[in-house]
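TASK: fixed-backbone design
INPUT:
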């Protein structure tokens, strides 16, 4: 099970060690679970689960749910590396996800779909994947930045990458 994987938990802990120093928004288990659940909602609400299954040759609804949740749970596991070296957290995260996912019994195709979405969640492009686009939107929808103590100094708010106006519903 992914959520109990020791490597996954090591990376989440590394994020929290770095974020104790910086004091900005936490990339903890709670944030990863929020993004996983919102991404799943963003696929279910428009009734797109069957499309997602067909587009990615997944075995069925359970596999699709696991893939979406895995992408959410792993999307920021590379954040600690960005704090310490400046390396893009999404690119690094998409690589280290490839170490963890086979340990949780994801097959090679599922690993490719998840890893690509992790890369795309903060490297947006016109030809990004279906899951990458939902993961990007779920990440933006996961925080109510207008209520945050850091709202006057946070670069994310200045770039309007995340704001309460992103809440579409
Ligand atoms: Fe995130």
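OUTPUT:
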């Amino acid at each position: 099970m992914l959520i109990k994987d020791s490597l996954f938990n090591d990376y989440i802990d590394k994020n929290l060690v770095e974020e104790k120093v910086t004091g900005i928004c936490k990339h903890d288990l709670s944030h990863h679970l929020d993004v996983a659940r919102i991404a799943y909602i963003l696929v279910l609400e428009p009734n797109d689960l069957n499309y997602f299954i067909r587009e990615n040759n997944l075995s069925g609804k359970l596999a699709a749910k696991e893939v979406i949740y895995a992408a959410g749970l792993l999307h920021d596991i590379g954040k600690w590396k960005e704090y310490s070296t400046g390396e893009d957290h999404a690119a690094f995260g998409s690589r280290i996800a490839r170490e963890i996912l086979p340990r949780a019994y994801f097959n090679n195709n599922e690993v490719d779909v998840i890893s690509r979405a992790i890369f795309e969640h903060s490297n947006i492009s016109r030809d990004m994947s279906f899951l990458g686009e939902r993961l990007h939107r779920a990440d933006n929808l996961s925080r109510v930045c207008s209520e945050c103590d850091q709202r006057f100094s946070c670069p994310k708010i200045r770039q309007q990458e995340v704001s309460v106006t992103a809440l579409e519903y």
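COMMENT: The pocket of fe (ii) ion is lined by residues 31, 35, 75-76, 139 (CB under 6 Å).
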